[in-house]
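Mods, move this if it's the wrong board.
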Amino acid sequence: LEASRNRSNCLLWNAGNINRRRFCRWAFVQVRRRRMAANRPS
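Not the wrong board. Structure tokens:
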């Protein structure tokens, strides 16, 4: 839920700005990677 909300906020925030878009994509990858690490069975 939080990740999708953050992504939509990024889409509004970065409208037309390539650097911001690149940063938002990087941030989204970080969140997804962290979630994958948390879901990984120990």
